[in-house]
Every structure is written in C-alpha cells, then in structure tokens.
Design brief:
Layout (H helix, E strand, L loop, with lengths): L1 E5 L4 H12 L3 E6 L9 E4 L7 H4 L4 E4 L11 H13 L5 E5 L26 H15 L5 E6 L3 E3 L8 E4 L12 E3 H14 L5 E7 L1
Parallel strand pairs: 1-2, 1-4, 2-3, 4-5, 5-6, 6-10, 7-9
Antiparallel strand pairs: 8-10
Helix pairs in contact: 1-5, 3-4
Length: 209
Amino acid sequence: MKIAVVCANGKAGKLIVQEAMERGLDVTAVVRGENRTVAKQVIKKDLFDLTADDLKDFDVVIDAFGAWTPETLPQHSTSLKHLCDILSGSSIRLLVVGGAGSLYVDPAHTAQVMDGVDFPDMFKPLATNMGKALDELRARSDVKWTYISPAADFQADGAKTGKYILGGEELTLNGKGESVISYADYAIAMVDEAISGEHIQERISAVAE
C-alpha cells in the first residue's frame, strides 16, 4: 500500500508517517520545506500546488493540514477542496485529520461539542472553520473520503498505549468517562483506517480506552 501524508511535518503528520512506516507501508511525506519526518520518500511541494499527477500513484492520501491563525483558518475549507478536486473521480482514498468540535452530543445530531457552554471561546473559530470544511466534504460524492475526529482532549505529547475505541458521529467517552486521546494513539487509528478502508464517505472518531 502506497500512502502520501500531506503536511507531514506537523505533530500529527509526523506520528502518522512513523506509525505507517513501522507497519511496513510505502510512505511518502509531502512537505513544503525540509523533511522532518522519518520518511525516506518526499514530495517537496505546498499543498495548494499539488496536482492530480503528483498523487496518481498512491492508494491513500492522508491530509494532516492544520491552520491556527485567524487569517489562515479558512484554509481548512480551501485546502480540503483542492485535495478533493485533484482526487475527484479516482480510486484514491482521502483520509482527513479532523477536529472534535463538530462531534455531536445528542442522538438527534442537533448539538455539537463546540455548542457547549464550557467550550473554550479561544477554540471556537478553529472548531467552526473545521466544522464548515467537514460539511463541505460531506457534499462530495466524487471522492472516497473518511474524516477522523479525535477525542475532545487531543494530547500532542500523550503516551502511546496502542489501544483506542472507534466511535462515529457522536462524542464517545471511555470507561473512565473521559474523551481523551494522544496523537500517537490517534495515528494508530488513522493507519488502521488507511489499511482497512471500512468507512468510506463517513466521519468516524477515536478515543483512548
């Protein structure tokens, strides 16, 4: 299996590259600058400059794009649209590192995590923009996408336990009543989905056991 990890130099991207390589997959890191991952194969190119030809030989493309400043937050939508457009109509699967703010907290799917009174104001613009990108992705029937949301507490430096619970559209709590996962365990869930391809055109989520 040939996998391209776009924006591989980010914290999530690097761990996804590492996890995939540890499992013997053929991994290419797509980076704008110097490669800081363990991947030996590299495409040095900005995400927005990628073409269909750049990605045509891959089975799976993993989108680890992230934007945090007010002026770049809309790029969650524009970057995902660009990747969808160049993969449109192909058999290549697109897996997206998503956000938790858009997870639902009720069975009717009318309320989301980011709607809660305890949701930090500083994260609302990020959650809103990522949620908008997911809504736009749902409208794409021409791409074999999967959107993977982490738990509400997404810990960059958390331990790798090797265990997680796979959830769906709703916020899932573990046996301790927590919604938490490390980037390392999230990477395991991402690579598991890359290998299995069981949730095409679905949003799934992952929480630590």
